[in-house]
Amino acid sequence: MEENIRMPRQKRAIEKREKIIDAGFTLICQNGYYNTNTAEIAKTAGVSTGIVYQYFKDKYDIFLEGLEKYGDEIFFPMLKIDLNSFKKDTFENTLRNMINIYINDHKLSKTAHEEITSMIHSNKDVADYFYKREMLMTETLVDIFLKNGFNSNHLIEKVHVMLGMIDNLCHEVIYHQHDNMDYNAMTDIVITNITSLFE
Amino acid sequence: MEENIRMPRQKRAIEKREKIIDAGFTLICQNGYYNTNTAEIAKTAGVSTGIVYQYFKDKYDIFLEGLEKYGDEIFFPMLKIDLNSFKKDTFENTLRNMINIYINDHKLSKTAHEEITSMIHSNKDVADYFYKREMLMTETLVDIFLKNGFNSNHLIEKVHVMLGMIDNLCHEVIYHQHDNMDYNAMTDIVITNITSLFE
Amino acid sequence: MEENIRMPRQKRAIEKREKIIDAGFTLICQNGYYNTNTAEIAKTAGVSTGIVYQYFKDKYDIFLEGLEKYGDEIFFPMLKIDLNSFKKDTFENTLRNMINIYINDHKLSKTAHEEITSMIHSNKDVADYFYKREMLMTETLVDIFLKNGFNSNHLIEKVHVMLGMIDNLCHEVIYHQHDNMDYNAMTDIVITNITSLFE
Amino acid sequence: MEENIRMPRQKRAIEKREKIIDAGFTLICQNGYYNTNTAEIAKTAGVSTGIVYQYFKDKYDIFLEGLEKYGDEIFFPMLKIDLNSFKKDTFENTLRNMINIYINDHKLSKTAHEEITSMIHSNKDVADYFYKREMLMTETLVDIFLKNGFNSNHLIEKVHVMLGMIDNLCHEVIYHQHDNMDYNAMTDIVITNITSLFE
DNA sequence: TATGAATGAGTCTTCATTCAT
DNA sequence: AATGAATGAAGACTCATTCAT
Q: What is the tens place of the pLDDT at every residue in D90-140?
């Protein structure tokens, strides 16, 4: 039969499909891919196991659709920023803004992060997703920077380093919360430091 | 019946135990926890499946022992550095040294990293291991820094930021290799930047 | 609730019913009963899955109707022969004729044959069909033979043996094609041999 | 893990393996391949479902081993005949002998026959088995015939026709038993007819 | 101690059939 | 009459763990 995955046309069916994605992706992120079974996904989505396989090729497919749907939100919230607001003279503010958006917009738990990250290398689809997004973000920023007069050697590498620092900071704040750390201070340090990168 | 795990005293038995840990941890790191089965572990270790359960409570236990045995080497290679070599006036060199050790000493594959990281949150033991090590490393470095006259506000936060940058850089070099990035330049950027953190 | 199968009276409905039979029987013959699913049948027939169950009791029913409709053509093509053409003095020619018709009229694939044959014994309906047809054919031929002066002991047994030989020969030619066999010669051998049966 | 099928070495294990083959093949022959499930096979064999998959790749593999083990007995009982007993002057006797052996040695039911035959064309392994055996038998007989002075044109085709007739006769006697047929007479007819083939 | 055979619960997936629209 | 979404039982197969030897 080969290609029997149905894209539902009726409104209710579409909603059902979405529910499966949501349930599946959430469960997988919460409990891990291998600790989530299809029965559980179906039950959580409020559907029968059978219908799952009419909308998705297999369990992995559900996860992939979830990644497609929620990945940006979780992993690249900064892509949502209006990058035109970037000005050289208000760089610090913009940075602080980006960081706040990142921190406030994270939707899924710590576990989601790790779980999905762990699949990057065992699976080409996930790897591709991340590779592309990462590059997209870096390049987009480089463009913006150039347009705004941030002109320096090795701009691309600097942007990459910057993004890494922001990532680390935000993960730290969102997920790890070491109680002997002063995260306000850390944020200031990071911002100052990034600024110095482009001077 | 509860606690039947035997700690072997005889040399041969100890060797067997080690072999199981090595085989299990390596396989799990290579192929993932759920893609590695006990039969495979036993076979690779050159023992029978039965014996595995005389030395270990369950499959997870094998992994845990492996983490105990090899974790530092893989995840915290910098702990191996002779921290006494840290001098304020040769800081740049020391940094470069640390980075090189990190990069050269990564023993396991890309997958190992992600795989194990993903287990941090599904299991308290693993989580504890990482939390403690991370803190240990940060604090050790803070001490060293203090002894060497790096005296600044928010030292602990700065060290944390620094470690994050090194981590990112090294992972980037070891694992990702975007072909439009100049990693030598990036290394220089990171080193310069870290230096500026402590000025 | 028992008997809800509707026999359609309207022309369009009848055509739909026929399409389902055709699609179902063809697919089953091509791919096997268990390798053909109702969704596929419906799709091939150009109808919805639901409607299938308004015309047929179950999947098996579709197959049965197909057998009824196409069975003779596939399994007993010789019944189509104008048996009045049977003459004792042109017996050889008639035989050759029968054989040619048999060979040329096989409509379905090799697989169809085997697939359906295998169902003969798992189901009484199919078994009955074959049993009756076989006997019908033998008896019809016996009658013809008698009318044409083929008068010998054990005529029924001889006709049966003859039909068996023709069957073997034709299957051999149609399906097996051993490349070290000369099928023209074999045909001659069979014809001569059959002739000798009735002398 | 790829190749994990274990060939058992211990006597009890070997017996168990055989039991699975016997149970599986018998059930499949009785009820059909798709109507036999692994649980049933295991239960009939008196083992757990798990062990089945340590000895066999899959359900099909069980069937194949059964075919290997019992195929000759069921489909080519004549291969057991001491072919040296073939003499030209006692040909009729030898034929009758072969037929009797064939008829008396059939081990499995009518269903077995059809079921397995139906798999010939849907599966290369089964097809190969039959093709090879058929050719082997034909060629073996041709040799014997030549050694015994049966020297005629198209010997191979004649032997094939002969084997076909014997097959038909025996199946008829064993399985079909039309009650208006005199099988003793039919046997005589076939024997006489075959004899005439080689004159 | 050690082996490797054995267990059986658990998993993904399919598909004939029914149901809401 | 017709659609196609939905159901859920059933089946093949896996694997951590235990047991007989």
A: 889 888 988 888 888 765 556 667 677 777 666 778 878 888 888 888 888
CA distance D8 to D16: 9
Nucleotides in chain F near protein beta carbons (<7 Å): 1-20
The mean pLDDT value of chain B amounts to 85
Strand F–CB B37 distance below 7 A: yes
| Domains located in chain C, CATH noted | 11-66 (1.10.10.60), 76-197 (1.10.357)
Report the pLDDT averaged over residues A62-66: 93
Q: Tell me the whole-structure pTM to 2 decimals.
A: 0.83
Yes or no, beta carbons of A115 and B120 under 8 Å apart: no
**Protein CA at C66 to nucleotide C1' at E21, angstroms:** 32
Q: Which spans in chain A are helix H?
A: 11-31, 38-45, 49-55, 59-75, 91-105, 110-119, 124-147, 155-171, 183-197
Residue numbers of A between 4 and 63 with CB closer than 8 Å to C:
4
Q: Which nucleotide is nearest to C38 (CA to C1')?
A: E16
Which has the higher per-residue pLDDT, D120 or C154? Answer: C154
Residues 41-100 of C with CB under 7 A from strand E: 49-50, 52-53, 58-60
The answer to whether residue C2 scores a pLDDT higher than 90 is no
CA closest to E10 C1', residue: A37
